[in-house]
Design brief:
This protein is α/β, with parallel strands linked by helices and 320 residues long. It starts with a helix and ends in a 10-residue tail after the last helix. It folds into 2 domains: 80 residues, no CATH class; 184 residues, Uracil-DNA glycosylase-like domain (Uracil-DNA Glycosylase, subunit E, 3-Layer(aba) Sandwich), CATH 3.40.470.10. The chain has a 6-stranded mixed beta sheet, with helices on both faces. Helices cover 43% and strands 8% of the residues.
């Protein structure tokens, strides 16, 4: 079979010396690697050698054949082909994938996902407030750390009866490092005032501690990374009731795919923490859809009734 320049280049790059006959080599190789007089000289030597002995092949003066292994005489007691076959090697080269083939987007994503899944997350289950905040500030366990301006740890009364948990931080929260600091935060303050509360009397937090770029929804790996921090915050606050505002926070903490419209209006429980939960719309949504404010008012009244029911009967969980 003809030998191409690409095949010889592959063999040369792999450091494999290969002997091939003059008539099996693509003439283009000789035309690019040697001048016409060299080709004629090689052809003449080949003809003379073949006339002298058919079993001897020209290897001494042709650089293509230098360092080639000496041909071995065929065995008289076996009919099996030799283990090394130039033709088979050439076929394998032709079928091989190109060197330095760029990775597809899906393969890169799979590789990143595998790396994240193998990453051992920080165990914050025994941290106090100072240790927990320092761990969040120094966290680099997902890609969001190199895009944030500030971490949004949380703020408020650290042993409050009410804990309010929202979605991921938005631009203004990222800028100031505080939760609910944009127009939606003003509306939340008004909602709290309507039930006799204010910002300093509750504890505010988000499911994520860093803002996703362009306010996109958090990725599963990002939510998983921050859940340990949020869980420890809940344990340290030790609230009697949790008010979840927003679809992302509700679905993440309650481990469900139900839409928020079906989650609101009834009592839930975070099983591993044994704390009653009420779900309502995020204030940012209410700014876009003010007609649903009355539904949130109903949710706040439900939260008050649940709180009155359990505050005297059910002991609060103790931080471990």
């Amino acid at each position: 079979m003809p030998v191409t320049q690409q095949q010889l280049s592959y063999l040369n790059a792999m450091g494999i010396p290969v002997w091939v006959g003059r008539d099996t080599v693509d003439s283009a190789i000789f035309e690019t690697k040697a001048d016409r007089s060299t080709v004629d000289s090689i052809a003449q030597q080949q003809s003379v050698t073949q006339l002298a002995s058919p079993n001897q092949l020209p290897i001494q003066n042709n650089p293509i054949y230098q360092q080639a292994p000496s041909p071995q005489a065929p065995s008289s007691h076996t009919a099996q082909p030799p283990a090394f076959s130039t033709e088979n090697l050439f076929n394998a080269i032709d079928q091989a994938a190109p060197v330095n083939q760029p990775q597809s987007a899906s393969s890169i994503a799979d590789s990143l996902k595998e790396k994240i899944e193998k990453t051992e997350l920080i165990d914050s289950s025994s941290f106090d407030w100072q240790q927990l905040q320092q761990a969040v500030t120094d966290c680099q366990q997902c890609e969001l750390y190199n895009k944030r301006t500030h971490v949004v740890f949380g703020e408020g009364k650290q042993n409050s009866t009410w804990m309010i948990i929202g979605d991921a931080p938005k631009e203004e929260e990222d800028t100031q490092g505080r939760p609910f600091m944009d127009r939606s935060g003003v509306l939340l303050d008004n909602m709290l005032t309507a039930i006799g509360l204010d910002r300093p009397s509750v504890y505010l937090a988000n499911t994520l501690k860093c803002r996703p770029p362009n306010n996109r929804d958090p990725k599963k790996a990002e939510s998983k990374t921050c859940y340990g921090y949020l869980k420890r915050q809940i344990q340290l606050v030790n609230p009697t009731l949790i008010l979840i505002v927003g679809r992302i926070a509700a679905q993440h903490l309650l481990q469900t795919r139900e839409p928020l419209a079906r989650l609101r209006g009834r009592r839930h429980t975070i099983e591993e923490l044994n704390i009653p939960v009420v779900v309502t719309y995020h204030p940012a949504y209410l700014l876009r859809q003010p007609r649903d404010k009355y539904k949130s008012w109903q949710d706040l009244k439900l939260a008050q009734s649940i709180l009155a029911e359990v505050s005297g009967d059910q002991p609060k969980i103790q931080a471990q």
